[in-house]
From TrEMBL:
Protein name: Bifunctional uridylyltransferase/uridylyl-removing enzyme
Pfam families the record matches: GlnD_UR_UTase, HD
Organism: Sphingobium yanoikuyae (Sphingomonas yanoikuyae)
Annotated CDD domains: ACT_ACR-UUR-like_2, ACT_UUR-like_1, HDc, NT_GlnE_GlnD_like
Family matches, as HAMAP family: PII_uridylyl_transf (MF_00277)
Regulation acting on activity, per entry: Uridylyltransferase (UTase) activity is inhibited by glutamine, while glutamine activates uridylyl-removing (UR) activity.
Coiled coil: none
Name of the encoding gene: glnD
Keywords: Hydrolase, Magnesium, Multifunctional enzyme, Nucleotidyltransferase, Repeat, Transferase
Length: 920
C-alpha cells in the first residue's frame, strides 16, 4: 500500500492512532452491551485527539507561517486518522457484524480537496460511502452512526452514500460529482471496492470525454471569475474562488489529471504541460495561497476565504511582513499576494496553450479568412490564427520586437500565441536602456497606448508578460501595488490600465449615456496623445512616500520626451499629472456657487484645452477606481464646475456672466410657476443671489412651490426621491435660528439616513430654506414611503422639542463599519482665502455614522453660522467642508477663535464628543 502524505514529518505529534485505538478498545471492553454510552465516550476520546492535533498544526503554521502546504497536509492527515479510528470503532464495537454477505461491504473515500490530501482548518470534510449494491440494514446503521459522531465532533461534513452503479450514473450527469470523484482517495474500509470504483470511473467516465471536460471546466472557471469581479487585482480578494486563487490552480490539475491521467502536480512536467521552472512557480504560489487561507481560518475560527481589510493586517503580521522602503507591512504582503496571483494567471495561460496544442489537430482553431489575413506582420508568423514567433531566438536577435509584437497584435486585432507570450516573459530582461531609448520601440509602445481599437487588452497582455514594466521601469514599481484603503478596488497597475480602457471606450462613444460631457469633449480635444499619456502616468508615483502628484509630474517630465512627445506636450502631461486631483477636489469639497471657487480653479487651469483634458482625466480616474464609485451626483458636480470654469475662460474674469445667469434662472422659474411679474418680484426679492447660483433649475421650482404652499407656517418639511442625484431631496423651510443645521443633521441620522450634500440658505427676511440630499448608510436609495415619513417626523420632533435630541442619539447604537479597520488621524483645515464672503473649513476624518452631526454640533457650540456643507467620502475617509460666518455674517478672523474652533472640530472628528454616544 502506498504511504499517504510522504512529505509529512513527525506524524505521531499530530495524532497517535495506535494509542487512541488502544484506549477505545479498553472503553469497549468496559462498556460492552451499552452502545449509546460507548458512542459518547468514543466521541469524547476523538474530540480530545482532534483538539490536540489542531493545536499541533497551528504550532507548525506559527513556526513556518508561509508554509501552507505543510499545514493543509497535516490537517488532512489528522482527519484521515480520526475517520479510520471512528470507522473501526463503529464496525467493531458499536455495530459488529457476524458473517457479512458480499453486499455488506463498504468503503470510505475522501473526495474534492480533501481527496487531494489538502485541508484548511475549517473546510468541509468531503467524504463518500460506497457500497457494492443498494445499502443493507447494517451498512445504513454504520453510515448513520458515523455521521452523527462526526457532527458531534463539530466537523462540517459534506457526504454522499451511493452504490457503485449510482456513483457512475451521477458522475456522467453532473460535472461537480465528476470533478469530486476525479480526486477520490481511499481512506478506510474495503480496498477491493475502492479499486473497482477507480477502474470503472476511468473506463466508463473518463475515456473519450477529455475535450468536453476541459470545455466545461473552463466555462465554469470563467463564470466564477465573473462572479468574483473578474480581476485578480481586487483589493479584497477571495483566496479560494477569486481570479488567481487556489481554485484556478486546482482547475489546472484537474484538467491535467483528466486528460493525461497524472497522479500528482509534479507529473504535469513529464507529460509536457509544465516545465520544471513552471512547476516550481506552481508549488510556490500554491504554498503561499494555502498559508494565507489557513491563517484566515485560524484568525476567524471559521471557513473565511475573503481577505478583507481587517484580516489583511492580521495575516500580514502573522506572516512576518514588516514595513520597508515607504511601504507598510500590509502593503508589502498584499503586493506579494498579487504577484502570486499574477503567477497563477501566467501559469494558466501557458498550461492551456500546451493543452490546446495537445488536444486540437492542426487547423482546428479559428483562422482569419484568406482575405483578412494580414500581409505585413513585421517578421512574425501566424500559428492557427494567432501571432507567433518564426524561431525561438527571434526576440534575442532584436529585443525591440518585444514591444513590436504587441503593436502588431493590436494593429491586426490578433491574439498572441501563448508560446510567444512565454518567450516574451522569458526574454523581457533583454529590454535594456538602449532598447528603451530606441525610437522604433517607443513608437510601437505609443501605437498600443493610443490605439483606437482596444488598448486595455493589449496593455494587460504587455503587463502580464512583464514587458510593460521592463520598458517603463517607473510602471514596474506600481505593478501589484495595492493601496490599503476602502476607496480603491484595484492595484495601481490594474487601475491605470482600466482607466486607459475607459478613455478609449469614451472616445468611441460607447459610454455616452454615462459620460455625455466627456464623450462630447473627446471630439474637441486637440492633443489626444497627451491625454492618453497623462492617464497612463497619473498614479505612476504612488507608494514612493511624498505627494504622488508632484513626484508623478517629475516622472512625466523625464519620460515623455523618450516616448516622442514634444516639449509643449511634455509640459501639458506633467501639468495634468500634477493637478489630476484638482478638479474632483474642487467639485466635491468646495461650494461651486461661490464665485471665488471658480476663479481660484481657473487661475490654475488657464486654458480651455487644459480644462477639457482635465475633465476627461478626472472622469476616467474616478470611474476606474472600482464599481459603484462613479454616480450621477459626481457627474452633476463635475459638469457644473466645467461649465462655470469654461464660461470664465471664455468671457475673461468678468462677473457679467453671473448676473445674466441669475436673471435667466429667475425668468425660467417665473415661467414654470406661471406668475405675473409683480408677484414674482416680491418672491424673488426675498432670496439672496447665492441661492440662485447654487441651486439647479428643477430644485428652484421644487423649493418655490414648497415655499408658496407653506404660506406663513413656521415649519414645513418636504421629502421626495430625486433621481438625477440618486438620492432623496429633503427640504426644510423654517424660521432660522442658531443650531438649526445640527438639529436637522441629527434628526436625519436618527431616521437612518446619511447626508451626502447640504445647501443652506437664509432668505432676506430671516427664514431658512435648507436642501439636503440623503441616501441610506450604504449609498443606496432612501425613498420608501415609510422612510420618507420617518425622516419628516424625526425633523419635526427635533425642531419642536429641543432637549430630547442627545438622549435619542445616545439610545441609537452606532453600527460597526468596515472603516474601523483603518486608523485616520483627524485633520482640520481653515481657509480664509478660498472665499470672499465665507471662512472655509475642511475636516478630514474616518467616516462613521453621525459624523456630520458631531461636526455640526461643534460648529453650533462655537457660535458660527453654516451657509453650505459639502460631504465627500473616499472609502473609509470622509471629507466634510463647511462655508461659515460668525453670527453677524462676517468671516472668522480672530486667531484665538479660530484655534478654539479647530480644537472643537478635532475633538468631534476624533470621536471624543461622540464617545458618550459610542459607549451608550
Amino acid at each position: 500500500m502506498v504511504m499517504q502524505f510522504p512529505s509529512l514529518g513527525s506524524r505521531r505529534a499530530i495524532i497517535d492512532r495506535r494509542a487512541i485505538s488502544d484506549s477505545i478498545n479498553a472503553l469497549a471492553q468496559e462498556h460492552r452491551g451499552d452502545p449509546i454510552k460507548l458512542r459518547g465516550l468514543i466521541v469524547k476520546e476523538l474530540k480530545a485527539a482532534l483538539e490536540h492535533g489542531r493545536e499541533d498544526v497551528a504550532r507548525r503554521l506559527e513556526a513556518k507561517p508561509t508554509r501552507g502546504r505543510e499545514a493543509v497536509t497535516a490537517f488532512a492527515f489528522l482527519i484521515d486518522q480520526i475517520l479510520r479510528l471512528l470507522y473501526d470503532a463503529t464496525t467493531h464495537h458499536l455495530y459488529p457484524a457476524g458473517n457479512r454477505s458480499t453486499g455488506e461491504r463498504i468503503v470510505l473515500i475522501a473526495v474534492g480537496g480533501y481527496g487531494r490530501g489538502e485541508m484548511a482548518p475549517h473546510s468541509d470534510v468531503d467524504i463518500g460511502f460506497i457500497t457494492p449494491w443498494k445499502p443493507t440494514g447494517w451498512t445504513e446503521q454504520i453510515i448513520e452512526s458515523m455521521l452523527y459522531s462526526l457532527w458531534d465532533l463539530g466537523l462540517k461534513v459534506g457526504h454522499s452514500s451511493r452504490s457503485i452503479d449510482e456513483t457512475m450514473r451521477m458522475a456522467k450527469a453532473d460535472l461537480t460529482v465528476r470533478t469530486a470523484l476525479l480526486e477520490a482517495r481511499y481512506v478506510w474500509g474495503d480496498r477491493a471496492l475502492y479499486e473497482e470504483v477507480a477502474v470503472r470511473f476511468d473506463s466508463e467516465i473518463m475515456q473519450g470525454t477529455a475535450r468536453t471536460f476541459v470545455t466545461e471546466k473552463l466555462e465554469e472557471r470563467d463564470e466564477r471569475h465573473r462572479r468574483m469581479g473578474d480581476s485578480r487585482y481586487v483589493v479584497e480578494p477571495n483566496v479560494k474562488e477569486g481570479k488567481g486563487g487556489l481554485r484556478d490552480l486546482h482547475t489546472l490539475f484537474w484538467i491535467g489529471k483528466y486528460v493525461n491521467r497524472v497522479k500528482s502536480v509534479a507529473e504535469l512536467v513529464d507529460v509536457g504541460l509544465l516545465t520544471q521552472s513552471e512547476l516550481r512557480q506552481f508549488q510556490k504560489a500554491e504554498d503561499f495561497l494555502w498559508a494565507v487561507r489557513c491563517h484566515l481560518h485560524m484568525i476567524t475560527g471559521r471557513a473565511e476565504d475573503r481577505l478583507t481589510f481587517d484580516l489583511q493586517l492580521e495575516t500580514a503580521t502573522r506572516m512576518h511582513f514588516t514595513a520597508r522602503a515607504g511601504r507598510s507591512g500590509v502593503e508589502r504582503f498584499m503586493r506579494y499576494y498579487f504577484l502570486n496571483a499574477k503567477a497563477v494567471g501566467d501559469l494558466t495561460a501557458v498550461f492551456l496553450a500546451h493543452l490546446d496544442d495537445q488536444l486540437a489537430e492542426r487547423g482546428r482553431r479559428y483562422i482569419p479568412s484568406i482575405f483578412r489575413r494580414p500581409k505585413k506582420l513585421d517578421g512574425f508568423v501566424l500559428d492557427r490564427g494567432r501571432l507567433a514567433l518564426p524561431s525561438d531566438d527571434f526576440f534575442q536577435a532584436d529585443p525591440v520586437r518585444l514591444v513590436e509584437i504587441f503593436a502588431v497584435a493590436d494593429r491586426h486585432g490578433l491574439q498572441i500565441h501563448p508560446s510567444a507570450m512565454r518567450a516574451a516573459s522569458r526574454d523581457a530582461g533583454l529590454i535594456t536602456a538602449k532598447v528603451r531609448k530606441d525610437a522604433r520601440a517607443n513608437a510601437a509602445f505609443m501605437d498600443v497606448l493610443t490605439s483606437p481599437r482596444d488598448p486595455e487588452t493589449v496593455l494587460r497582455w504587455m503587463n502580464e508578460s512583464t514587458v510593460f514594466g521592463r520598458f517603463i521601469p517607473d510602471f514596474r514599481r506600481v505593478v501589484a501595488q495595492m493601496q490599503f484603503d476602502m476607496y480603491h478596488h484595484y492595484t495601481v497597475d490594474e487601475h491605470t490600465i482600466r482607466a486607459v480602457g475607459l478613455l478609449a471606450r469614451i472616445e468611441k462613444g460607447e459610454l455616452a449615456t454615462d459620460h455625455p460631457l466627456a464623450t462630447e469633449l473627446m471630439g474637441k480635444i486637440l492633443s489626444r496623445r497627451v491625454l492618453y499619456v497623462a492617464v497612463l502616468l497619473h498614479d505612476i508615483a504612488k507608494g514612493r512616500g511624498g505627494d504622488h502628484s508632484i513626484l508623478g509630474a517629475e516622472v512625466a517630465e523625464h519620460l515623455c520626451p523618450r516616448l516622442g512627445l514634444t516639449a509643449a506636450e511634455t509640459e501639458t502631461v506633467a501639468w495634468l499629472v500634477r493637478y489630476h486631483l484638482l478638479m474632483s477636489a474642487t467639485a466635491f469639497k468646495r461650494d461651486l456657487a461661490d464665485y471665488k471657487t471658480i476663479l481660484d480653479f481657473v487661475e490654475v487651469v488657464q486654458s480651455p484645452e487644459r480644462l477639457r483634458l482635465l475633465l476627461c482625466l478626472t472622469v476616467v480616474d474616478i470611474r476606474a477606481v472600482g464599481p459603484g464609485v462613479w454616480n450621477s451626483w459626481k457627474r452633476q458636480l463635475l459638469g457644473d464646475l466645467y461649465d462655470a470654469a469654461e464660461e470664465v475662460l471664455r468671457l475673461g474674469h468678468k462677473q457679467k456672466g453671473r448676473s445674466e445667469r441669475v436673471a435667466a434662472k429667475q425668468e425660467a422659474l417665473r415661467e414654470a410657476l406661471g406668475m405675473d411679474e409683480a408677484t414674482f418680484a416680491a418672491f424673488s426679492g426675498r432670496m439672496p443671489e447665492s441661492y440662485w447660483i447654487a441651486e439647479p433649475d428643477d430644485i428652484l421650482v421644487h423649493n418655490a412651490r414648497h415655499i408658496l404652499e407653506a404660506g406663513d407656517s413656521s415649519l414645513s418639511i418636504a421629502a421626495q426621491y430625486y433621481p438625477q442625484r440618486g438620492a432623496t431631496l429633503v427640504t426644510v423651510y423654517a424660521t432660522d435660528h442658531p443650531g438649526l443645521f445640527y438639529r436637522i443633521a441629527g434628526a436625519i441620522h436618527l431616521a437612518g439616513g446619511n447626508i451626502i450634500d447640504a445647501r443652506i440658505h437664509t432668505t432676506r427676511d430671516g427664514v431658512a430654506i435648507d436642501n439636503f440630499l440623503v441616501q441610506d448608510p450604504l449609498g443606496g436609495a432612501f425613498h420608501s414611503p415609510e422612510q420618507l415619513a420617518r425622516i419628516k417626523a424625526a425633523i419635526e420632533d427635533s425642531l419642536s422639542n429641543r432637549h430630547r435630541m442627545i438622549t435619542k442619539l445616545e439610545a441609537r447604537p452606532l453600527p460597526r463599519t468596515r472603516a474601523e479597520a483603518f486608523r485616520i488621524e483627524p485633520n482640520v483645515l481653515i481657509d480664509n482665502k478660498a472665499s470672499n464672503r465665507f471662512t472655509v473649513i475642511e475636516v478630514n476624518a474616518r467616516d462613521r455614522p453621525a459624523l456630520l452631526f458631531s461636526l455640526a454640533n461643534a460648529l453650533f457650540q462655537s457660535k458660527v453660522t453654516v451657509h453650505s456643507a459639502h460631504v465627500a467620502t473616499y472609502g473609509e475617509r470622509a471629507v466634510d467642508t463647511f462655508y461659515v460666518t460668525d453670527l453677524l455674517g462676517g468671516k472668522i478672523e480672530s486667531k484665538a477663535r479660530l484655534q478654539t474652533l479647530e480644537r472643537r472640530l478635532l475633538e468631534a472628528a476624533g470621536g471624543e464628543v461622540g464617545e458618550a454616544l459610542e459607549r451608550a
